[in-house]
Amino acid sequence: MESYYTAKNYSFKDVIKAFSKTMGLLFIFIGVGLFFDSSFFVNTYSHGQLYANSVMILVFIALFYRATNRSRELMIYAVLIGIGGEYLFSLGFDMYTYRLGNVPTYVPPGHAIIYIGAVYFCREAAIKKFKKQLINFFTIFILGYAFLFLVFANDVFGFALTLLTLFILRNKPRERLFYLSMYIVVAVLEIIGTRYQCWYWPESAFGIFPFLKSANPPSGISFFYFGLDLGALWLYKKRHALAWKRMKTQRLVQQKS
Q: What DSSP designation does 179 have?
């Protein structure tokens, strides 16, 4: 018997619907959540970051409650890695700076929300059906986006990271759509966050490499978000080594058959 996935004739309209209820909602959440920490809001109301923290934590709890056990565990790992990464890159390396010079509480759970949002998008049946077409479209879009930043914002750093991302993904067909989706989500996040003046990036990479000029934000900064996924997945595999090995064996058998 054919499964629901193979039996249904998905159309471009289904792709738009799947995008809207995953990535679209994620974009709206980013725009609303970060607004509370924006310079526009805090100029009128104090304690904006407190509101942003509250919104982010509430949404994280809601998503965590509805997630599968595996997704919950990955979300926890994403928060932990996010905490370490933020303190290392922001406060340690001065790669970017938040409005108050701290690491806002909302940022680590925000990483987990972005991560799980991209996962949900890639799990949609209509998205799976048009996976190849979406990969091609996202690749062209990303190259165009990074090229425009290079030309009009002298974003050498972001363009180099974009090319490095696409180079790494050339041999990762299974993960390609997820990482391209993450690139787009992070691009939207960074544009909104910097326009709200929640954080800013220096004029060159880490503020110390003058030959790597950077826009605010750099286009390909999602490259560093990949470490979040790889780290969370590595922790999950270590904790569930036997189950992960069985899954890989089953996958190889299915591919051969």
A: H
* Spatial distance between the Cα atoms of 156 and 161, rounded to a whole number of angstroms: 9
pLDDT of residue 235: 86
CA distances from 187 to 114, 182, 222 (A): 11, 8, 7
**Phi (first) and psi of residue 204, to 5 degrees:** -145, 165
| Three-class DSSP category at 70 | helix
Length of the chain, please?
257
Tokens representing 129 are 């059906």
131, two tokens: 């996976």
Distances (CA, A) of 93 to 15, 27, 70, 138, 158: 40, 28, 32, 31, 17
DSSP 43: T
Under 8 Å between Cβ of 80 and 107:
no
Mean pLDDT by 10 residues, the chain (257 residues): 54 93 95 94 88 94 93 92 93 94 94 92 95 96 98 97 94 91 96 97 94 96 85 82 68 62
DSSP 205: E
The per-residue pLDDT for 233 is 79
The pLDDT of residue 199: 97
Instruction: Give the SS3 label for residue 97.
Output: strand
Crossing angle of helices 107-123/226-239, nearest 10°? 80
